[in-house]
Amino acid sequence: MALMITDECINCDVCEPECPNHAISQGVEIYEINPDLCTECVGHFNEPQCQQVCPVDCIPLDPEREESRETLMQRYEIIVARG
């Protein structure tokens, strides 16, 4: 699954620099995660780094983007290949 940021986000700015895939960006009101770039840090870390640093725990799995670890690894490989 890709991750998502809920409206509990307080715009604290700590998640964006932690994302190794640059999937997190400032949206109109809160930060957003591009699901096409999110690998839940598969390929980089054992756990999603944004979830680790979020002070309000507003970054759950996106229930509309169920993906296997293999799919996330394939996405990671594509992102890395692009440079």
UniProtKB/TrEMBL annotation:
Keyword Methyltransferase among record annotations: no
PROSITE patterns: 4FE4S_FER_1, 4FE4S_FER_2
Record key words, sorted: 4Fe-4S, Electron transport, Iron, Iron-sulfur, Metal-binding, Repeat, Transport
GO MF annotation list: 4 iron, 4 sulfur cluster binding; metal ion binding
Domain annotation 4Fe-4S ferredoxin-type: ranges: 1-29, 31-64
One Pfam entry name: Fer4
InterPro entries (UniProt xref): 4Fe4S_Fe-S-bd (IPR017896), 4Fe4S_Fe_S_CS (IPR017900), PSI_iron-sulfur_center (IPR050157), YfhL-like (IPR047927)
PANTHER family named among the record's database cross-references: PHOTOSYSTEM I IRON-SULFUR CENTER, PHOTOSYSTEM I IRON-SULFUR CENTER-RELATED
Protein name per the record: YfhL family 4Fe-4S dicluster ferredoxin
Lineage: Bacteria, Pseudomonadati, Pseudomonadota, Betaproteobacteria, Neisseriales
